[in-house]
Amino acid sequence: MDDSIAMQVTRYRPDKNSQPVPVDYEVPLRTEWTVLDGLNHIKAEQDETLSFRWSCRMGICGSCGMNVNGEPRLTCATFLSDYAPGPVRVEPLANFPVVKDLIVDITDFMEKLPRVKPWIIRDDDVTEIDGEYIQTPEELEAYQQFSMCINCMLCYAACPVYGLDPDFVGPAAIALAERYDLDSRDRGSRERLDVLIEKEGVWGCTFVGECTSVCPKHVDPAGAIQRYKLKAAQESVKAFLLPKALRR
Amino acid sequence: MSAPVTRVPSYQRRIGVFWWVHKRSYFLFVMRELSSIFVAWFVVYLLMFVAAVAGGQQRYDEFLDRATSPLLLVVNAVGLAFLVLHTVTWFALTPKAMVLRLGGRRVPGTAMLAAQYVALAVVSAFIYWLVVKA
Amino acid sequence: MSEGATTAAHDVLLVGGGAAGLRAAIAIAETRPDLDVAVVSKVYPMRSHTVSAEGGAAGVMADDDSIEEHIYDTISGSDWLGDQDAIEAFVNEAPRELLQLEHWGCPWSRQDDGRIAVRAFGGMKKMRTWFAADKTGFHMLHALFQTSLKYRAVKRYDESFVTRLLVDEGRVYGVVSVELATGRIRAITAKAVVLATGGCGKVFPFTTNANINTGDGMALAYRAGAPLKDMEFVQYHPTGLPFTGILITEATRAEGGWLLNKDGYRYLQDYDLGTPTDKPTLRSMELGPRDRLSQAFVHEVEKGRTTDSPWGPIVHLDLRHLGAKLIDTKLPMVRELCLQYERIDPVTDLIPVRPVVHYMMGGVHTDIDGRAGLDGLYAAGETACVSINGANRLGSNSLPECLVFGARAGRAAAEDAAAAPAPPAAIAAQVSDETRRLEHLLARDTPLDDGVARIREELQTTMEDAAGIYRTGPSLEKGADTFQALRERVGAVGVRDTSPSFNTELVAALELENLIDIGECILRSGLAREESRGAHQRTDFPKRDDERFLVHHTVRRDHDGNPSVDRLPVTITRWPPGERTYGR
Amino acid sequence: MKFRVLPFVWLTFSGGGVVAAVFLPVLVVLLAFALPLGWVDPSHAHLEGLVQSWFTRIALFALIVPMLVHAAHRFRYTVYDGLQVKHKVLVALACYGGAMVLAMAAFLVLTTV
Ligand SMILES: Cc1cc2nc3c(=O)[nH]c(=O)nc-3n(C[C@H](O)[C@H](O)[C@H](O)COP(=O)(O)OP(=O)(O)OC[C@H]3O[C@@H](n4cnc5c(N)ncnc54)[C@H](O)[C@@H]3O)c2cc1C
Ligand code: SF4
Ligand code: F3S
Ligand code: FES
């Protein structure tokens, strides 16, 4: 194996560049090094102005998403050696506005998330707690996959629909809505349906499926969205056909 | 909870019209979606066929004649390819889009996939029989 | 960043959006909906380091368990340095907090009948650790964060870095922060401020902690004149992955994993931790407390019974006998991490591990309601020291600590805020002071051959050499000397990145200032404690010395800016100091 | 619960997708290749009998309408996202309108033959 690898990093400094430009660096190539280690090496040894987000370096905090050779990846879980002999192209996550270098603005997601009400909704909202809600392992399993989302935004970067139509609520938020809908403790699916049945809700998704392919936590937002469409359709048909009295 | 809104100055990248040619998965996706044109076309073709058959032996023969023109053959061949793409992708996506439960167990994706191909075979055989044999 | 500072005002301000900060925010929103609450965090709340916690959260739940036993385990785990009134409150309130989280959607792992499942954990005599597979912290944090979204009244300043507390005549009136995306300096005033900024693992080179764990809250309080407490007690976790320091949770051992030296021998039996059994035995062998296990490792190294790796000596964690099914259901993340970062599969391979800096027992000195040493100032979570952890924290006590004392601090701060005076005019001067300081830092040139990254690295290795698992007077002394030189370099270093937006170099420079303050406090407190207790092991004073040192050390900044160490009695109620025994 | 049209459109789109996947290939192979190229040779009378039957006509109509909606719905999003023709309303009108016209044509053909 070569002992170094070229990294082509997209830089954008609002006070210096009018648009993002690729800059070439050379970093040591070690088997245990991730793309993030490469970036940190550049920052420590070559150019301390290089900016990017990271924190846990163990694939769980969701901050270090970037496009690596065109694919959205968690850079702390992507190894340089998989790209040998290089070069490795590192760009900010696609579909988001770039704030600086590899840092994108995810305010849009942060504003969308509360809209799908990702919290337990109960009709019997009690404040005094004297025991747990019973939930069998099967009931837990029903929503577990959708509870694994780390909000890393890779799915948004992979979804062309989100890129072209930023009004689309988007994969992770819908997967989280589904996570609460499927939770046996929750009673809020009606409220969430009212949000997601709008055209910015689930209907924008044309089942490209890339969100699921890139998700590092196997959340399967694509599946969640299609199931949501089915649910929305079923409920609509029910509401249309059944007289009010018979509806739940 | 809400965050105070301050607009962050940022660079907005533009997506080109040909965003889908650079990546295999995006390309396949757009091809899959374009199959819709041929679905519409074949519906029209089917109607023309029905009209021709109903119009009597002569119109029917004319129809068959026109259908063997190289242009139509090419269009239909391309259309069939897209249709196959539609069928294959549609079947592949169904198990991802819905969860079937039998006796409390989730039906595995491969079983749903297989079931769809069986349905395809049965329907095809039936229609073949209807048109050709019965 | 030259337009000067903007100002915002709230009733209560929470610095930190981890488990402690969010729990406090919700507590206030629920008990005092009339108050205006804000959370400032240098990362988006769901990125906080709580997200990395794997193993679980302790709370008495099982029928065969009792409050009394959890208290005793915690006290003896703390080597009798924990305050017993605080521990009692903690153990009493933990189960309710964990249930509350269950009601907020945390996907706790369950028994077949649908009730909450508990697992064993190091140093605990009963199974009482609630878990969500091995992503407990992740699930807790996301449940808290998502629940917090429900309360529209709670404002958030995401990705804003707090650089200073505003203090006038012994009372805290808010903070100065830098909004990272824009570089805007913002004064956020409040009638009460809760620090919930997490740990400071980054003082050391090799740690399980995330990049953001730079002890900011401790440093903020310290510089504002509030005392820190128990700073000499730094927990090493016995099982981290060699290169990255990524944690392999204690739950692996709770589920039955073994620690093997290079001869395949379960070496813990040689260190008074009991005798090996096939099935895990509570409070014995691999389920001993972390300090003792990490110390045993050092002895194995000395005996030449460890394996060499490019990153120093290692031992092995053996999970192979647990089988794929158990590993996949109870420890899926461990398998994921091993496959990804070590390219080994714990189902068939041994996991290489070594001790790694993990947790800070010390922190901002607070009382049982989170009150810190200044009026209007509160602290909770890892950044605080109540102290329930004393000289050694038991695994899985820290997440519930964040909840219990987060909620308590939140409520107390809310009461305080309701009655507090409005911020005086004097703080405006402090805001412009701080603005000037930050601008100055940006304008200053960095010496060519120096930089934040280099100083940080030297600081970290200094700390490891001086205050590792085993310390001595001379090693600590030498470290403290090196710090003098480091401090001068920190004073000279500037920031090369001059752009206002997302200046990560500026952040790193500010964090470095915090690291150096914290590191120094650790060294000074360590020097003062001439005994061995829990995580603080002095080879020159190998015995616990209750006569002289059954006390907390507080450390405060004196008028010359130097740390000065004081003593504070330990609260002993019903459990007189005894011998710490495991495996017997 | 809110009433929205999109769920119904989507349901028809999905139905049409299934029909197109399951029924259309064999029909295309037969009508576009096998018959014109003489691979199979059913008599005209037989085929006439077939299309004259009410059962066939109703079945055909029931298959054709969802397929048209399917095609229109899909094409609409392809034009909108793929080609980035950003006249949302216009595109939708053209696509669903086209489908409607074709459906009416189908109705005429199938009722008058
Ligand atoms: C790998 C790992 C595994 C662990 N596993 C367990 C376990 O199984 N059980 C257990 O009980 N404990 C465990 N712990 C310990 C426990 O996770 C932590 O002690 C706890 O999560 C700390 O929570 P916190 O709320 O105090 O701080 P954090 O979650 O660290 O949050 C700190 C917050 O403060 C903010 N902040 C910091 N500085 C600033 C600043 N200057 N300005 C603005 N905001 C700032 C950050 O943005 C962040 O939001 C583990 C720890 C680690 C490292
Ligand atoms: S769904 Fe997957 S890719 Fe999307 S934000 Fe969540 S974890 Fe990331
Ligand atoms: S990639 Fe986008 S279009 Fe749908 S299936 Fe995923 S959200
Ligand atoms: S740094 Fe946390 S996910 Fe990569």
From TrEMBL, chain A:
Give yes or no: UniProt keyword DNA repair: no
**Primary enzyme class:** oxidoreductase
This protein's cofactor list reads: [3Fe-4S] cluster; [4Fe-4S] cluster; [2Fe-2S] cluster
Show where the 2Fe-2S ferredoxin-type domain sits: 7-96
Q: Which Pfam families match?
A: Fer2_3, Fer4_8
Per UniProt, residues of the 4Fe-4S ferredoxin-type domain are 140-169
Per the entry, the cofactor note is:
Binds 1 [3Fe-4S] cluster. Binds 1 [4Fe-4S] cluster.
- Source taxon at top rank: Bacteria
What EC number(s) is this enzyme filed under? Answer: 1.3.5.1
Q: Which GO terms describe its biological process?
A: respiratory electron transport chain; tricarboxylic acid cycle
* Reactions mediated catalytically: a menaquinone + succinate = a menaquinol + fumarate
The GO terms describing molecular function are: 2 iron, 2 sulfur cluster binding; 3 iron, 4 sulfur cluster binding; 4 iron, 4 sulfur cluster binding; electron transfer activity; metal ion binding; succinate dehydrogenase (quinone) activity
**Which controlled-vocabulary keywords does the entry list?**
2Fe-2S, 3Fe-4S, 4Fe-4S, Iron, Iron-sulfur, Metal-binding, Oxidoreductase, Tricarboxylic acid cycle
Q: Give the pathway listed in the UniProt entry for this protein.
A: Carbohydrate metabolism; tricarboxylic acid cycle
What NCBIfam families does this protein's entry cite?
Answer: dhsB, PRK05950.1, PRK12385.1
* Homology family: Belongs to the succinate dehydrogenase/fumarate reductase iron-sulfur protein family.
- This chain belongs to the protein called Fumarate reductase iron-sulfur subunit
User: What organism is the protein native to?
Assistant: Nocardioides islandensis
TrEMBL record, chain B:
Gene3D superfamilies the record matches:
Fumarate reductase/succinate dehydrogenase, transmembrane subunit (1.20.1300.10)
Q: Name one GO cellular component term.
A: membrane
Establish whether keyword Transmembrane helix is in the entry.
yes
Q: Which UniProt keywords apply?
A: Cell membrane, Membrane, Transmembrane, Transmembrane helix
Report the transmembrane regions from the record.
34-55, 67-93, 113-132
Q: Which domain of life is it from?
A: Bacteria
Q: Does the keyword Transmembrane feature in the UniProt annotation?
A: yes
InterPro entries from the xrefs?
Fumarate_red_C, SQR/QFR_C/D
Protein's name in the database: Fumarate reductase subunit C
UniProtKB/TrEMBL annotation, chain C:
* Signal peptide boundaries: none
Q: What is this protein called?
A: succinate dehydrogenase
Entry annotation: catalytic residues: R290 (proton acceptor)
Its EC number is 1.3.5.1
Per UniProt, residues of the FAD-dependent oxidoreductase 2 FAD-binding domain are: 11-399
Name the major location. membrane
Q: Which cofactor does it need?
A: FAD
A GO cellular component annotated for this chain's UniProt record is:
plasma membrane
NCBIfam families, from UniProt? PRK09231.1 (NF006686), sdhA_frdA_Gneg (TIGR01812)
**Which parts of the sequence are annotated with region: Disordered?**
556-584
Q: How does it assemble?
A: Part of an enzyme complex containing four subunits: a flavoprotein (FrdA), an iron-sulfur protein (FrdB), and two hydrophobic anchor proteins (FrdC and FrdD).
List, alphabetically, the Pfam families matched.
Answer: FAD_binding_2, Succ_DH_flav_C
Q: Which organism is it from?
A: Nocardioides islandensis
TrEMBL record, chain D:
Q: Where are the transmembrane segments?
A: 7-34, 54-77, 89-110
Q: Which GO terms describe its biological process?
A: fumarate metabolic process
Do the record's keywords include Cell membrane? yes
From the Swiss-Prot or TrEMBL record, give the protein name.
Answer: Fumarate reductase subunit D
The scientific name of the source species is Nocardioides islandensis
Q: Does the keyword Transmembrane apply?
A: yes
Print the keywords alphabetically. Answer: Cell membrane, Membrane, Transmembrane, Transmembrane helix
CC annotations in GO:
membrane
Annotated coiled-coil segments of the chain:
none
